[in-house]
Specification:
The structure is a single chain. By secondary structure, this protein is an alpha+beta fold. The chain folds into two domains: 97 residues, Tumour Suppressor Smad4, CATH 2.60.200; 74 residues. It is built from four helices and eleven strands. The strands form two sheets. It has a six-stranded antiparallel β-sheet. Strands 4-3-5-6-9 form a five-stranded mixed β-sheet, with no helix packed on it. Helix 1 packs across helix 2, helix 1 crosses helix 3 and helix 1 crosses helix 4. It is elongated and about 50 Å long. GO terms for molecular function: DNA binding. Keywords: Phosphoprotein. This is FHA domain-containing protein. Pfam families: FHA (PF00498).
Length: 210
């Protein structure tokens, strides 16, 4: 496990599972999972510290490695509950690659690359359609996410996207607003909207320009 509350910007070594979360500053945070028990909460002593969300309890949820699989448990630890892939957690649930955990207003994504060839069903809100984007929008989104796919903590700036695609910064902003509208993100604050756009693009494959 990283130091309590610590984050890394590179994928954990040896393909151990990890949790990711987008901060309000559009920074991707990562926590490598090791050992047998990982506590998620607002307390400084938690393994995964979510300090900036007042709806997260001091000790909110517990991840346990059981029989080679990670499970999540919320046995009344939290005041506001824990949600897995859009469903409120009751008891214990086995986690699968790319499952989402919502604690308070914070969404964590469980990543287990060794599972990616194993089919499983995700339950939750439907993802937007990647093919709903225009070719120009897909190119802008791919450029937005290129630093993330290379291991950086932040997506590309508008100026970097404009330079790569030979567009004006205003044109980049227009395309990103169009993507946010198509994906139903208009209601989010600007920084969160940008982070959510990049997150969805990676999940949908649009980050690779598909």
């Amino acid at each position: 496990m990283d130091e309590p509350g610590g984050t890394t910007t590179a994928p954990p070594r040896d393909q151990e599972p990890w949790l990711t979360c987008w901060s309000e500053q559009a920074q991707l945070r990562r926590w490598a999972l090791s050992g047998s028990v990982v506590i998620v909460g607002r307390a400084p002593g938690a393994d995964v510290v979510v300090a900036d969300d007042p709806l997260v309890s001091r000790m909110h949820a517990r991840l346990e490695r059981t029989g080679g699989r990670w499970t999540v448990v919320d046995d009344g630890l939290s005041r506001n509950g824990t949600w897995v892939c859009g469903q409120r957690l009751t008891g214990r649930r086995v986690l699968h690659d790319r499952d989402t955990l919502r604690v308070g207003n914070t969404v964590l994504t469980f990543c287990a690359p060794d599972e990616r060839d194993e089919p499983h069903t995700l339950v939750g809100e439907p993802l937007p359609l990647a093919d709903a984007l225009t070719p120009a929008q897909r190119a802008v989104v791919a450029a937005l996410c290129r630093p993330l796919l290379a291991g950086a903590a932040l997506p590309a700036t508008n100026a970097q996207i404009a330079a790569e695609l030979h567009l004006s910064v205003d044109a980049v902003k227009t395309h990103l607003r169009g993507v946010a509208h198509r994906w139903g993100l208009d209601h989010l604050p600007q920084n969160e909207k940008r982070a959510r756009t990049a997150q969805l693009a990676v999940r949908l494959g649009s980050a690779a320009g598909h």
